[in-house]
Amino acid sequence: MGSPTGTTQAVTGLTASTAYQFYVVAVDAAGNTSAASAPVAVTTTAPPVGGTCSVGYASTDWSAGFTATVTITNTGTTAINGWTLRFSFPGGQTVGQGWSAAVSQTGAAVTATNLSYNGTLAPGASVSFGFNGNHSGANPKPTAFTVNNTACTLA
Question: What CATH number matches the domain at 53-154, 2.120.10.30, 2.60.40.290, 3.90.1150.10, 2.70.50.60?
Answer without folding.
Answer: 2.60.40.290
